[in-house]
Amino acid sequence: LSFALLIYTHKEKNIFFYMFMAITVGIGFVVEVIGVNTALLFGEYTYGNVLGIQVKNVPLIIGVNWFIVMYCCGITTYTLFKKALSKLAIETKTPTQSLKAISVIIDGATIAVFLDWIMEPVAIKLGYWHWKTDVIPFYNYLCWFVISIFLLTIFHFCSFNKQNKFAIHLLLIQAMFFLLLRTFL
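Structure (tokenized):
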């Protein structure tokens, strides 16, 4: 439902938007297949049955989840960057494209890792996935950061409308949802 609402609320869809979506869903699913089946990415973990139909030990929905997180983090950091510039009254000085790229990519990846950090203990308790040692490895967060940087670089350089208030709200809703469950479960 969140995926459908993000697509519905995205204004001025073009080929680049759909390209980013397809690339992110595909890469998200592939990195999880590599992670689960080889432990080369994220660490040693397995998915439970809660997330539905699996292919190569990975739920099909995982690629969609990667898109939701990357899109929401990209839109949020892009919006924050624009608002920060207007609040600081820097309209007379145009920030370099590299500063904008660094902000969207690095800050977005940091937000994505923070969301994963909030979500991990809840996901384990709800049976989404399980770590072999019952300890979430630092390597998981490092992989999340690197993969997020790659996907948010694609997000930044794909030429499509980067404004969607629903994406920002969805990111906040997800963060609050998992934070509340993390606190009370």
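The longest helix spans residues 97-125. The first strand starts at residue 45 and ends at 47.
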